[in-house]
Structure formats: C-alpha cells, structure tokens
Amino acid sequence: xxxxxxxxxxxxxxxxxxxxxxxxxxxxxxxxxxxxxxxxxxxxxxxxxxxxxxxxxxxxxxxxxxxxxxxxxxxxxxxxxxxxxxxxxxxxxxxxxxxxxxxxxxxxxxxxxxxxxxxx
Length: 120
Fold this sequence. Notes:
By secondary structure, the protein is mostly helical. It has one domain. The chain contains 5 helices and no strands.
C-alpha cells in the first residue's frame, strides 16, 4: 500500500470518531441507538485489524509448543488441538493447555471487549 494512503484501521477509527463527535449528539431515540451500534462495530473491526495478526502469531507459537513442532498453519493447528481433545490425548488440566487457553482468551477479549481486560 502506498505510504500516503491511511490504513484501514485508521480510516475506520476516523469514521467512528466523526460519527461520535458530529452525528451522535444530534440524535436521540432509535437513530441514536443504531449509530451507537455502528460505532461499536467500527471500533471492534479497528481493534481486530490492529491486534489480530499479533494474536494469531502468538497463538500459533503457543500451539506449536503445546502440540510439538509443526509447520502447519494456524487453522490446522487448531484442528489438531481439537482432535486431541476428542481422542482424549490431552488432559484438560494440563498446565501448558490452561496457559494457552488463558492467553488466547485474553487476546480475544482485548479485541472484543477491551474494557474487560483493562479491569483485570
């Protein structure tokens, strides 16, 4: 992408800021509620664009360590983990598994509900 073109996350954030600053104060009732929903969606997608690549890389690294070295892509590693659960090959109280799931949950919440992760 050329250097002079803002990123998708920057554009989405600018749209959300404009709606919140200039449009939302002029609305009430159902239109105001619907704009708040749009704001939440814009901000969620912005966070996903900014944070998901790093979260996916961290998840892949954890899964490779947990499941044994692999060159597989993240979807295949996730499927392998699920298969091991189904076959009873990985105990649910395994400390490495618990650490992986805890980290993954925090990463997902940082995108989906960042207030929750800041409070804890």
